[in-house]
Amino acid sequence: MNADPLIIAGRTFRSRLIVGTGKYPSHAIMADAHRASGADMVTVAVRRVNLSDRSKESLIDYIDREQTFILPNTAGCYTADEAIRTARLGREVGLSNWVKLEVIGDERTLFPDNVALLEATRVLVQEGFVVLPYTSDDPVICRKLEEAGAAAVMPLGAPIGSGLGIQNPNNIRIIKAQSKVPVIVDAGVGTASDAAIAMELGADGVLMNTAIALAADPVAMARAMNLGVEAGRLAYLSGRIPRREHASPSSPATGLVGAPAQA
What we know:
Blueprint (H helix, E strand, L loop, with lengths): L5 E3 L2 E3 L3 E3 L7 H11 L3 E5 L23 E5 L6 H13 L5 E4 L12 H13 L3 E6 L3 H9 L6 E2 L13 H10 L5 E3 L5 H9 L4 E4 L1 H4 L4 H21 L25
Parallel strand pairs: 3-10, 4-5, 6-7, 7-8, 9-10
Antiparallel strand pairs: 1-2
Helix pairs in contact: 1-8, 2-3, 4-5, 6-8
Protein backbone atom coordinates (compact mmCIF):
# COMPACT_ATOMS: atom_id res chain seq x y z
CA MET A 1 0.00 0.00 0.00
CA ASN A 2 2.68 2.45 -1.10
CA ALA A 3 0.04 5.13 -1.74
CA ASP A 4 -0.68 5.12 2.00
CA PRO A 5 2.74 5.13 3.69
CA LEU A 6 3.54 5.27 7.38
CA ILE A 7 5.41 8.47 8.25
CA ILE A 8 7.30 8.79 11.54
CA ALA A 9 9.49 11.80 12.33
CA GLY A 10 9.53 12.72 8.65
CA ARG A 11 10.71 9.29 7.50
CA THR A 12 8.46 7.33 5.14
CA PHE A 13 7.88 3.58 5.39
CA ARG A 14 6.09 1.56 2.73
CA SER A 15 4.63 -0.92 5.19
CA ARG A 16 2.61 -0.30 8.34
CA LEU A 17 3.83 -3.60 9.77
CA ILE A 18 6.94 -3.59 11.96
CA VAL A 19 8.50 -6.92 12.88
CA GLY A 20 11.05 -8.19 15.39
CA THR A 21 14.06 -10.49 15.35
CA GLY A 22 13.74 -12.68 18.44
CA LYS A 23 12.61 -16.29 19.03
CA TYR A 24 12.93 -17.51 15.42
CA PRO A 25 14.08 -21.11 14.86
CA SER A 26 17.02 -19.77 12.85
CA HIS A 27 18.37 -16.56 11.36
CA ALA A 28 17.60 -17.89 7.88
CA ILE A 29 13.92 -18.45 8.71
CA MET A 30 13.84 -14.98 10.26
CA ALA A 31 15.13 -13.47 7.01
CA ASP A 32 12.55 -15.37 4.95
CA ALA A 33 9.76 -14.25 7.30
CA HIS A 34 10.91 -10.63 7.10
CA ARG A 35 10.69 -10.74 3.33
CA ALA A 36 7.25 -12.35 3.44
CA SER A 37 5.99 -9.72 5.89
CA GLY A 38 6.73 -6.86 3.51
CA ALA A 39 7.98 -4.85 6.49
CA ASP A 40 10.66 -2.27 5.90
CA MET A 41 11.33 -1.57 9.59
CA VAL A 42 12.71 -4.26 11.89
CA THR A 43 13.35 -3.89 15.60
CA VAL A 44 16.53 -5.35 17.10
CA ALA A 45 17.44 -5.63 20.77
CA VAL A 46 20.74 -3.82 21.30
CA ARG A 47 21.71 -6.51 23.81
CA ARG A 48 21.41 -9.23 21.15
CA VAL A 49 23.82 -7.57 18.74
CA ASN A 50 27.40 -8.84 18.84
CA LEU A 51 29.25 -5.60 19.58
CA SER A 52 32.60 -7.04 20.66
CA ASP A 53 33.58 -9.22 17.71
CA ARG A 54 32.22 -8.14 14.34
CA SER A 55 33.93 -11.12 12.66
CA LYS A 56 31.39 -13.52 14.21
CA GLU A 57 27.96 -14.16 12.76
CA SER A 58 25.24 -11.81 13.94
CA LEU A 59 21.53 -11.55 13.28
CA ILE A 60 22.33 -8.17 11.72
CA ASP A 61 23.98 -10.12 8.90
CA TYR A 62 20.56 -11.50 7.96
CA ILE A 63 18.90 -8.09 7.61
CA ASP A 64 19.10 -6.27 4.28
CA ARG A 65 20.05 -2.86 5.57
CA GLU A 66 19.62 -1.27 2.14
CA GLN A 67 15.94 -2.24 2.11
CA THR A 68 15.17 -2.41 5.83
CA PHE A 69 15.43 0.21 8.54
CA ILE A 70 16.78 -1.11 11.84
CA LEU A 71 15.01 0.15 14.95
CA PRO A 72 17.16 -0.62 18.03
CA ASN A 73 15.24 -1.42 21.18
CA THR A 74 16.11 -1.41 24.86
CA ALA A 75 14.51 -4.78 25.65
CA GLY A 76 15.51 -6.17 29.03
CA CYS A 77 15.98 -2.79 30.73
CA TYR A 78 14.30 -2.27 34.10
CA THR A 79 15.37 1.28 34.95
CA ALA A 80 15.41 4.59 33.12
CA ASP A 81 19.19 4.82 33.49
CA GLU A 82 19.70 1.35 32.04
CA ALA A 83 17.45 2.12 29.06
CA ILE A 84 19.19 5.45 28.42
CA ARG A 85 22.63 3.82 28.44
CA THR A 86 21.45 1.04 26.12
CA ALA A 87 20.01 3.56 23.64
CA ARG A 88 23.27 5.48 23.67
CA LEU A 89 25.20 2.27 23.03
CA GLY A 90 23.03 1.46 20.03
CA ARG A 91 23.74 4.87 18.56
CA GLU A 92 27.46 4.70 19.29
CA VAL A 93 27.89 1.40 17.44
CA GLY A 94 26.10 2.79 14.39
CA LEU A 95 22.71 1.12 14.62
CA SER A 96 20.56 4.27 14.70
CA ASN A 97 19.63 7.38 16.65
CA TRP A 98 16.11 5.97 16.67
CA VAL A 99 15.08 3.81 19.59
CA LYS A 100 12.11 1.68 20.56
CA LEU A 101 12.25 2.58 24.22
CA GLU A 102 11.33 -0.15 26.69
CA VAL A 103 11.55 0.11 30.46
CA ILE A 104 10.00 -2.95 32.05
CA GLY A 105 8.32 -2.57 35.43
CA ASP A 106 7.32 -6.13 36.22
CA GLU A 107 9.28 -9.28 35.40
CA ARG A 108 6.28 -11.61 35.20
CA THR A 109 3.83 -9.51 33.16
CA LEU A 110 6.47 -7.43 31.35
CA PHE A 111 4.26 -4.40 31.77
CA PRO A 112 6.15 -1.12 31.30
CA ASP A 113 7.26 1.17 34.12
CA ASN A 114 5.59 4.29 32.77
CA VAL A 115 7.19 6.65 35.30
CA ALA A 116 10.69 5.53 34.32
CA LEU A 117 9.66 5.44 30.65
CA LEU A 118 8.60 9.07 30.73
CA GLU A 119 11.87 10.05 32.44
CA ALA A 120 13.97 8.20 29.85
CA THR A 121 11.95 9.67 26.98
CA ARG A 122 12.63 13.22 28.15
CA VAL A 123 16.37 12.58 28.46
CA LEU A 124 16.76 10.85 25.10
CA VAL A 125 14.69 13.41 23.20
CA GLN A 126 16.96 16.13 24.61
CA GLU A 127 19.93 14.13 23.31
CA GLY A 128 18.56 14.03 19.77
CA PHE A 129 17.04 10.56 19.71
CA VAL A 130 13.88 9.70 17.80
CA VAL A 131 12.02 7.95 20.61
CA LEU A 132 9.24 5.41 20.12
CA PRO A 133 8.18 4.33 23.62
CA TYR A 134 6.49 1.01 24.37
CA THR A 135 3.84 1.81 26.95
CA SER A 136 0.57 0.66 28.47
CA ASP A 137 -2.74 1.39 26.74
CA ASP A 138 -3.31 4.39 29.01
CA PRO A 139 -4.40 7.54 27.16
CA VAL A 140 -2.95 9.77 29.90
CA ILE A 141 0.58 8.36 29.75
CA CYS A 142 0.44 8.33 25.94
CA ARG A 143 -0.41 12.05 25.99
CA LYS A 144 2.45 12.77 28.40
CA LEU A 145 4.91 10.82 26.28
CA GLU A 146 3.87 12.80 23.21
CA GLU A 147 4.28 16.05 25.17
CA ALA A 148 7.76 14.85 26.18
CA GLY A 149 8.72 14.63 22.50
CA ALA A 150 8.02 11.01 21.54
CA ALA A 151 7.92 10.60 17.75
CA ALA A 152 5.21 7.95 18.11
CA VAL A 153 3.44 6.19 20.95
CA MET A 154 3.33 2.39 21.12
CA PRO A 155 0.57 1.16 23.44
CA LEU A 156 0.38 -2.56 24.08
CA GLY A 157 -2.56 -4.54 22.79
CA ALA A 158 -2.00 -7.24 25.42
CA PRO A 159 1.02 -8.49 27.42
CA ILE A 160 4.16 -9.19 25.39
CA GLY A 161 4.09 -12.62 23.74
CA SER A 162 0.62 -13.45 25.06
CA GLY A 163 -1.19 -13.63 21.72
CA LEU A 164 -4.37 -12.44 23.43
CA GLY A 165 -5.19 -9.79 20.83
CA ILE A 166 -6.48 -6.29 21.56
CA GLN A 167 -7.79 -6.34 25.12
CA ASN A 168 -8.94 -2.71 25.43
CA PRO A 169 -10.11 -1.54 22.01
CA ASN A 170 -11.73 1.61 23.34
CA ASN A 171 -8.45 2.73 24.89
CA ILE A 172 -6.75 2.38 21.50
CA ARG A 173 -9.51 4.49 19.93
CA ILE A 174 -9.08 7.20 22.58
CA ILE A 175 -5.30 7.22 22.21
CA LYS A 176 -5.60 7.55 18.44
CA ALA A 177 -8.20 10.32 18.68
CA GLN A 178 -6.01 12.44 20.93
CA SER A 179 -2.61 11.79 19.34
CA LYS A 180 -0.86 14.03 16.87
CA VAL A 181 1.91 11.47 16.39
CA PRO A 182 1.52 7.94 14.95
CA VAL A 183 0.03 5.27 17.20
CA ILE A 184 1.65 1.84 16.82
CA VAL A 185 0.00 -1.09 18.59
CA ASP A 186 2.87 -3.06 20.10
CA ALA A 187 2.60 -6.52 21.72
CA GLY A 188 -0.18 -9.04 22.19
CA VAL A 189 -1.08 -9.78 18.56
CA GLY A 190 -1.62 -13.50 18.01
CA THR A 191 -2.89 -13.84 14.47
CA ALA A 192 -3.81 -11.85 11.38
CA SER A 193 -7.31 -10.96 12.59
CA ASP A 194 -5.76 -9.27 15.66
CA ALA A 195 -3.59 -7.16 13.37
CA ALA A 196 -6.62 -6.26 11.25
CA ILE A 197 -8.60 -5.23 14.33
CA ALA A 198 -5.77 -3.00 15.54
CA MET A 199 -5.74 -1.24 12.18
CA GLU A 200 -9.53 -0.99 12.02
CA LEU A 201 -9.42 0.82 15.36
CA GLY A 202 -7.34 3.49 13.66
CA ALA A 203 -3.82 2.48 14.66
CA ASP A 204 -1.18 3.76 12.26
CA GLY A 205 0.78 0.54 12.45
CA VAL A 206 1.35 -2.72 14.31
CA LEU A 207 4.57 -4.10 15.76
CA MET A 208 4.87 -7.83 16.42
CA ASN A 209 7.43 -10.55 16.94
CA THR A 210 6.28 -13.66 18.82
CA ALA A 211 3.14 -14.21 16.74
CA ILE A 212 5.30 -14.68 13.65
CA ALA A 213 8.47 -16.17 15.13
CA LEU A 214 6.74 -18.93 17.11
CA ALA A 215 4.07 -19.78 14.55
CA ALA A 216 4.20 -23.32 13.15
CA ASP A 217 5.12 -21.73 9.82
CA PRO A 218 6.70 -18.31 10.50
CA VAL A 219 7.01 -17.40 6.83
CA ALA A 220 3.35 -18.11 6.06
CA MET A 221 2.26 -16.26 9.21
CA ALA A 222 4.38 -13.27 8.22
CA ARG A 223 2.54 -13.13 4.91
CA ALA A 224 -0.79 -13.44 6.73
CA MET A 225 0.13 -10.56 9.05
CA ASN A 226 1.06 -8.42 6.05
CA LEU A 227 -2.36 -9.03 4.53
CA GLY A 228 -4.11 -8.50 7.87
CA VAL A 229 -2.51 -5.10 8.36
CA GLU A 230 -3.33 -4.03 4.81
CA ALA A 231 -6.94 -5.25 5.07
CA GLY A 232 -7.47 -3.53 8.42
CA ARG A 233 -6.04 -0.26 7.19
CA LEU A 234 -8.15 -0.32 4.02
CA ALA A 235 -11.28 -1.10 6.03
CA TYR A 236 -10.54 1.80 8.40
CA LEU A 237 -10.09 4.22 5.51
CA SER A 238 -13.21 2.92 3.77
CA GLY A 239 -15.51 3.66 6.71
CA ARG A 240 -17.52 0.79 8.09
CA ILE A 241 -21.32 0.80 8.17
CA PRO A 242 -22.94 1.76 11.48
CA ARG A 243 -23.96 -1.05 13.82
CA ARG A 244 -27.71 -1.65 14.01
CA GLU A 245 -29.88 -3.48 16.50
CA HIS A 246 -32.10 -4.91 13.75
CA ALA A 247 -31.72 -6.21 10.22
CA SER A 248 -31.53 -3.90 7.25
CA PRO A 249 -32.38 -5.45 3.86
CA SER A 250 -29.63 -5.33 1.27
CA SER A 251 -32.11 -5.14 -1.62
CA PRO A 252 -34.78 -2.42 -2.07
CA ALA A 253 -38.40 -3.45 -1.44
CA THR A 254 -39.72 -1.42 -4.39
CA GLY A 255 -40.40 -3.36 -7.56
CA LEU A 256 -40.93 -6.72 -5.84
CA VAL A 257 -43.97 -8.82 -6.70
CA GLY A 258 -46.69 -7.98 -4.19
CA ALA A 259 -44.90 -4.87 -2.97
CA PRO A 260 -47.17 -1.85 -2.34
CA ALA A 261 -47.23 0.65 -5.17
CA GLN A 262 -45.49 3.95 -4.62
CA ALA A 263 -47.75 7.01 -4.43
